[in-house]
Amino acid sequence: MAASRASSHPKAVVEADTFLETDNPLPPPTYAQSIASPINIILFALLITLIYLRLRPKPPVTLSRPAPPIVFRTFTPPMLKPYNGENNMPVYLAVNGKVFDVSSGRNFYGPGGPYENFAGRDASRGLACGSFDEDMLTKDLGGPLDDLKGLGEDEWEAMRGWEERFEEKYLVVGKLVAVGDPEASK
After folding, report:
1. I need a labelling partner for 12 at 20 to 30 A (CA). Which of 30, 103, 104, 145 fits?
2. Whether 42 contacts 48, CB under 8 Å
3. pLDDT tens-digit series, residues 63-94
């Protein structure tokens, strides 16, 4: 009967409603969300993927084989000829008796390059004269070296300029001597 009195009294009804709203902190069951919502599943999968990518074992690092050391050698024209860039050989050329490794400039001095005639040869006269023709190269590889006779002062200066450029840019790997020279057997 007390309950019927409380319900009949207007103030009691308001207090009862307030009591129900303030003392129950949980939302009605129809508004509760599940932890397994699609966005949570996607975020969890992303988290697992990132953790896996961060912690997965890395393949061992493989180092490439170092290039064989280049030793200063004495070359004769026939010994220099194979170093023309073909068959995976390095590209060497000689200027004024010095043999340079121009392999890093393979696009210029190797097969198909504009200076390919000079690869594996003495390029002194051709560079001095500014000519890429075969005529500038010594024909007889077993004969004496080109003594560069007949070059004018301007041509000597041009050759020295090329020699200086090669010394700045490329490694000197040897010297060029004639076949039969006592130094050739060393």
Report:
1. 30
2. no
3. 888 777 778 899 999 999 999 999 989 999 99
